[in-house]
């Protein structure tokens, strides 16, 4: 199925067009000595006309019958192309961007392709419990590869050192996998899921 690009999409977000919308499906999580658990997840990638994608994920634990048992956790953050910021961009603080996007056309965006033919991106994700992650990586067609560049933990937060995340569109399903290094352990499998698009809103 071809990827539909919304007519109102700012040029800077065209590489993310295949992600936009709401996805839902099931997966499994576990780590170290923790019991592996099934979960259901609802993920939304939303654009508002600004040059970043708003990310939200809600995860619910499932019982042995596959029915919702209780809420597990939430995540939210921002996905954007990694590039030097200019006077016309958002910030610092609440300073608004210029009305005209810094990257005005597809040709401007094409200039940002990296040596492997993808686009460098940065992703910030905040989690409850006082943990925030900054991921750097690339989006290349319908695939995203991310590795943490920095992890911020509040005093008293659980130990978490680093993570990698992989997202890909396979047969119109969003597949993702998350490896993490935490609790004194090396980087290892943590969670994965297969999601189906349930809402095409862009």
From TrEMBL:
Q: Which residues form the THAP4-like heme-binding domain?
A: 12-197
Q: Which UniProt keywords apply?
A: Heme, Iron, Isomerase, Metal-binding
Query: Which GO molecular-function terms appear in the entry?
Result: heme binding; metal ion binding; peroxynitrite isomerase activity
Q: One Pfam match, by short name?
A: THAP4_heme-bd
- Please list the reactions this protein catalyses: peroxynitrite = nitrate
SUPFAM superfamilies documented for this protein: Lipocalins
Q: Which cofactor does it need?
A: heme b
Query: What family is this protein classified in?
Result: Belongs to the nitrobindin family.
**What does the UniProt record say this protein does?**
Heme-binding protein able to scavenge peroxynitrite and to protect free L-tyrosine against peroxynitrite-mediated nitration, by acting as a peroxynitrite isomerase that converts peroxynitrite to nitrate. Therefore, this protein likely plays a role in peroxynitrite sensing and in the detoxification of reactive nitrogen and oxygen species (RNS and ROS, respectively). Is able to bind nitric oxide (NO) in vitro, but may act as a sensor of peroxynitrite levels in vivo.
- Comment, domains: Forms a 10-stranded antiparallel beta-barrel structure able to accommodate a hydrophobic ligand in its interior. In fact, this fold hosts the heme group, which is located in a wide surface cleft.
Descriptive protein name: Peroxynitrite isomerase
């Amino acid at each position: 199925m071809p990827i539909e690009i919304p007519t109102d999409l700012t040029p800077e977000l065209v590489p993310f067009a295949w992600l936009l919308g709401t996805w839902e499906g099931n997966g499994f999580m576990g780590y170290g000595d923790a019991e592996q658990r099934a979960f259901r997840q609802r993920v939304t990638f939303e654009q508002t006309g600004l040059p970043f994608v708003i990310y939200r994920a809600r995860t619910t634990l499932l019982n042995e019958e596959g029915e919702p048992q209780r809420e597990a956790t939430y995540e939210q953050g921002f996905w954007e192309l990694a590039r030097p910021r200019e006077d016309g961009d958002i910030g610092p603080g609440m300073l608004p961007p210029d009305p005209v996007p810094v990257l005005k056309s597809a040709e401007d965006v094409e200039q940002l392709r990296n040596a492997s033919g993808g686009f460098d991106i940065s992703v910030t994700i905040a989690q409850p419990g006082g943990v925030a992650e900054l991921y750097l990586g690339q989006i290349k067609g319908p695939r995203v590869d991310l590795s943490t560049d920095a992890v911020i933990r509040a005093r008293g937060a659980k130990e978490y050192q680093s993570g990698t995340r992989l997202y890909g569109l396979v047969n119109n399903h969003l597949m993702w996998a998350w490896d993490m290094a935490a609790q004194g352990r090396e980087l290892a499998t943590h969670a994965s899921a297969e999601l189906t698009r349930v809402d095409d809103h862009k």
